[in-house]
Specification:
By secondary structure, the protein is mainly α. The protein has one domain. Helix 1 packs across helix 2. The chain is globular, with a radius of gyration of 10 Å.
């Protein structure tokens, strides 16, 4: 399981609203990858 898969699964389980995350806050996570909104959202809620 990749980190993208992991964070996406956690976000879906938590029913996280990540629609406001449109740009990556990290240099190693591109803005166009499928998990970017979940990644930024999970970091913001201090997972």
């Amino acid at each position: 399981m990749t980190r993208g898969m992991f964070v996406t699964a956690l976000g879906r389980l938590a029913e996280a609203d990540v629609s406001k995350y449109t740009k990556s806050s990290f240099t190693d996570v591109k803005s166009d990858v499928y998990y970017m909104p979940m990644w930024n959202g999970q970091v913001k809620i201090a997972l």
